[in-house]
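Appendix B. Raw example, untouched.
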Amino acid sequence: PAPIIGHLYILKQPITQTFAKLADRFGPVLSLRFGSRPVLMVSSPSTAEECLIKNDVAFCNRPSGFLAGKYLGYGYTSLTWAPYGPHWRNLRRISAVEILSSHRVQLLSGIRADEVRMLVLRLISAAGDGDRAVEMKPAMFDLTMNVMTRMIFGKRYYGMEGEEEAKRFREIVAGTFRLFNEICIGDMVPYLRWLDWRKEKRFKRFKEEREILMRELMEEHRRKMKEVSDEDDGESKDQRPLIQVLLKLQESEPEYYKDEIILGIMLVSISPSLSWAHEYLTKTMGGKKIQILLD
């Protein structure tokens, strides 16, 4: 490794191809150093299973000292950045039960069906008489995001071009993606953090802008919950959006479910991981397969 920067000089885009070439040359397990941070790269199914399943507790902690974790992860308290322990396990439980469980997915199947129906109508309208090509990538991304935002906030924000709140939300999501990919020298070489002072200002400003919108949404749902009692609510408790579930938990445990914790749980669900689904739909599956499914 080079002095100070370690192996950072070998990282070139696309990063996945760079790692693949390293694995082909040096083997499935490789020790690297990015600045002052030691990195273990594994690239075979057996070694990945050894690290992530058999020895998952030993590898489950997240690194600290990243601007993204400090500002986007609310001081390393969100699911993405929190260290392994009771707090992380509770966040994981909430995500598993309220978002990812088969029971929850089945209950909210109407949302998915509704969004797919609107997507098909949108594609038919855009295609006209069938002689115009339709860009599938943004359409599939909008579908994925609308399903998630309706599950979490009870609203759809994509394909709503004229609405100010939808525009603000899309800007927040785009900004989150952009900052997560921001390269900060201080993340890898902590004593050079002072070089990132402009980037840190951007992180702070973005965090404030994001919190304004999220707190407005929280207050809106607090008002709705006060206006409609559980007995009079025509909507099943199980079909409430995640934000109302979390606000209900806050009423019973306000010392734990602070606003920052709730914000972190909601925002980590609208995370760059959605872009992986996006890439899977548009690249891994391929446009022809998507067309067959729509047909």
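End of appendix B.
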